[in-house]
Amino acid sequence: MTSLQAFHKIKDLHEREKKEKQKHYQEQVDAFESVATNLYEMLKKKEAAEQNFHEGLTHSKVKAQSFMHHRRYVDQLENEIIRLQPEVQQARAQMESAQARLSSAHMEVKKFEKLIDNKLERHRQWLKEEENKQMDELSTRQYLTYKNR
Question: How does it sit in the membrane (predicted)?
């Protein structure tokens, strides 16, 4: 059973690595959600600003200064959106990479769990075979002892 203890130690090591990778993955998910939420808010602000401006155009006269002010505000939002899009892509790539590493660590743990289960099953079968051999030997002795009387 020495090798079984070694398998347990290796499995424990892989489980610790898996937990670290799980923690790293969660950090990457949180980072992605934060950046993606910022991008979403900017897109929402731009859409609301354009909708309000168009509603203002249909209901009343708009001064040229309002046009310029609106255009400047929308340009600022678009610049912010353009700045955030690569950050979102990078955060998504890091999150997906962390997920792949987590999946790999999970498979390693499962592999060692399967090895341990197989080893235990072979040991149980060996014990059962030994028990059967002992029972056969005992039966034979009893038969011979009874026969000799």
Answer: Peripheral membrane protein
What's the CA gap between 30 and 21, in Å, rounded?
14
**Token pair in block for residue 56:** 């203002």
Residue with tokens 């610049």: 79
CB 90 within 8 A of CB 52: no
Structural tokens at position 30: 């949180």
Distance from C-alpha of 22 to C-alpha of 102, rounded to nearest angstrom: 6
Task: For residue 42, give the nearest of 86, 82, 92, 93 by alpha carbon.
Answer: 82
Q: Record the pTM.
A: 0.77
Q: What is the pLDDT along the chain (149 residues), one digit of tens a residue?
A: 568 899 899 999 999 999 999 999 999 999 999 999 999 999 999 999 999 888 888 887 777 888 899 999 999 999 999 999 999 999 999 999 999 999 999 999 999 999 999 999 999 999 999 999 999 999 999 998 887 66
* Sequence letter at residue 32: F
What is the sign, positive or negative, of the torsion defined by CA atoms of 123, 129, 133, 134? positive
Integer Cα distance of 33 and 149 in angstroms = 86
